[in-house]
């Protein structure tokens, strides 16, 4: 059971994916006592290869990307906790209290980066990342001039199948025995584009010697070869903590935020996949950076506002720099170059 005495920080980031790590990076480097609380796993950890990241080779996997990020955060002085936050509340003094399985935490500002879980179709399925994908903009490039499928029966599945025609002329839309739920306008689009709707259920998966998808088997006995494809069954947003704190939630389950990730609750931010927008690693990094900078503007000591100067007087030289001693020492050590 967690200790009743919370670990106190200026900023606590909940969630160790790309958005959470970048928010913690900016908060720490800008001089604020910061903790990253991460339960492990997540969508980014499942990536076989990292795509669309300039400067990062595609042979880099999600686990390696996240592990490197945590090492960097610790080098800068961020506390990284392997823990799962189970509940939270706002205190009368404005702080946010967070209860974890391992420890309790208290923060002036909280960044929620808990993401979402893709709703998986029923098996049989190809292996995630080796024939089963969820992000069109991440992975469509992999299927240029290849045979691909889209699993689903709603509007999103139909539109993803139509968009894939920009990359290949072999696109099948697999409803897997479910009745299509797209509207008449979408049905008209499908009828006027070379997308084949396959209604039979999938009964088996064939993989090549390398472990990647080779073909899918169907209940009518057909075997159709595919390089890979996309499952479009929606998302289950991990917005429980945001709801506990009273944040406004959009109809689709995302958390309502402004351009910097600020939620409807003061001092609470939401970034990455749980906020509206494209679910991309580069965008998640940008969301985290913007939130970290916004929090720094609110927390930084200087310049002292005119009304505070009237109360506390001019800033004295011994009051600067405005960074905690432990982070100051860490920064000096980090940037000490050999003579």
UniProtKB/TrEMBL annotation:
InterPro entries: FAD/NAD-bd_sf (IPR036188), FAD/NAD-binding_dom (IPR023753), Ferredoxin-NADP_redctase_2 (IPR050097)
Lineage: superkingdom: Archaea
SUPFAM superfamilies: FAD/NAD(P)-binding domain
Domain FAD/NAD(P)-binding as annotated: residue spans: 9-288
UniProt xrefs under Pfam families: Pyr_redox_2
Keyword Flavoprotein: yes
GO molecular function: oxidoreductase activity
Segments forming a coiled coil: none
Keywords, alphabetical: Flavoprotein, Oxidoreductase
Keyword tRNA processing: no
Protein known as: NAD(P)/FAD-dependent oxidoreductase
Annotated organism of origin: Halovenus salina
Species classification: Archaea, Methanobacteriati, Methanobacteriota, Stenosarchaea group, Halobacteria
